[in-house]
Design a protein that fits this description.
This protein is 43% helix and 10% strand. By secondary structure, it is mainly alpha-helical.
Length: 191
Amino acid sequence: AISGGGKSYLTSILIEELLTRNDALGTPAIILIDVHGEYTYLKDIPQLKDKVKVQDASYFQIAVPKMNAYSFRKYQKEISNVQVRELSKYIKQLKKNKENNGRFTLHDIIELVEKDTNGSKGTKQALIGWLSELAHLGLFGNQENPSLNNITKKQHLTIFNLENEVNIRKKQIMVDYICYRLFLLRRMNRI
């Protein structure tokens, strides 16, 4: 669709209607990924201000402990099957470790790979390279922020404002993660 065709305006009108309609008609929770920051004004509309929450992308964090080795492949396509298998082994080790309370980061995985004296040096070096590249993005941590389990509420809008994020790859990873996590949470009837 062409620029200036009214897509954003139509979207904002539909959101306003959904947030203000009668409970008997159904009042969904709405999640909006706003890549240009064009919907944040909705929080300033008096009848919507208590129903709109804007999440700033600069504080966004993907929980490494919630990921498995195959989910890393989504964000780092060059990881080979052998590297995925090795990564899986390190993630399992960290998940079993009682000292970290189930919280670990990419740096913890990298440290474990570096300390491992077994396995192919080439495989480990490549894996460290891929994981370091992901760590450099600053998106991955030991816990999810915001907690996607807690952001959906009937008749409320949560806006993920990605306007200030200039790195396209980071935006793509954030959008993929949000959508996939919400899909899984919905599938498990947790949202």
